[in-house]
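I hope you will forgive my troubling you with a question about protein structure. The matter concerns a single protein, recorded as an amino acid sequence and a row of backbone structure tokens. Please examine both parts with care and let me know of anything in them that strikes you as inconsistent. Thank you for your consideration; the sequence and its tokens are set out here:
***
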Amino acid sequence: MTTFQALLLGIVQGLTEFLPVSSSGHLVLLQNLFNIDLSGVDMFYDITLHLGTLFAVFAVFYKDIFNLFRRPGKNLLYLIFASLPAAVVGIFFGDIIDELFFGGKYLFICFLITAAMLASAQIYAKKSKNVLPLNKKSVAVMALAQAVAVIPGISRSGATAAAGTLAGADREQAAKFSFLMSIPVIAGSFFITLVKGIGGGEFASVFINSGQNLGLCVAVSIAAAAVSSLASVKIMLKAATKANYIPFIVYLLILSALCAYLTFSGRL
């Protein structure tokens, strides 16, 4: 991997982790299009990208995070509950999902699904005048959406924000809660990957065989992911609060068409 590729992956990860366009889908697509070889370091590199995006969430939502631990702690309980379905899917079906979807051939379908969810949320938001505070129903719907978004190409931020809107929740509350939901998912993915990498001996071989070049690439990616994440968090929060997803829907439709062409031409 080159330093430029590390920079590119970091920027894309940071932007797409929180914009409703799917970070995992973009990373799969980039690795295929630019022949970025992460063999032998894929697990290690995955956790470094997540470190950068976690920084942005804590930087923007530190007050909301602290408030989770204030009495009566209802939102903290909501957050724990909302994290369980995705955790179950990731732990028990993660390897199967990786095997089926990380080749990229289903990306065009998953991007279309994300676009459809965003369009449905926008249409519903414009017609609905009765919105409710975040409650058990809306949190449950957002939790299920996050579990489905484990599949590459289905945006976690897009799916959860759209699900909250469709469940009748206040859009700003749903958007903020969607970002808070990312913390257990990203942190959980970080620690699971860390344990697997250490237990399987992959990380030891990475440090032995890769040397200083990998260290530089990792530093560049973390910095790029952190900076770009800060921008994407603010953009997504504004878009979700107003339920204005048209730019993302158009982008996803174009991206889906590109992926369909690449798939049926044998390039994915």
